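Incident log, structure service

09:12 report received: a user says their structure output differs between two submissions of the same chain.
09:20 pulled the input from the user's history:
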Amino acid sequence: MENKEKNSPYYLRRIPFFIISYLFAPLAYILLFIKWRTLDSSVRDARLIVASLFLLLFIVDFFPAGLYQNIVLAIALTVGLFITFIGLGGAKK
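09:34 re-ran on a clean worker, output below:
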């Protein structure tokens, strides 16, 4: 995986992409989809999982505080875990 990461742009490497995803979740998605075809599938899947989880948490902040926000957060975390499970190759035998 290290060799595959060396061929990718600096902003799509592990730590810079994590920081971009944490600070600017929609920007991480845009960067990922711009370079989608040039990335290796394993690197692409890992970055998609990270970007999806941070984007779901980013979106939850726009909902009003209270019970509704808690329900949406629970749904977002469930969807995030589902994306992680599928992205890591779950349900394969």
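09:41 both user submissions now match this output. Likely a transient worker issue. Closing.
09:42 reviewer note: Residues 2-87 form one domain. The chain has five helices and no strands.
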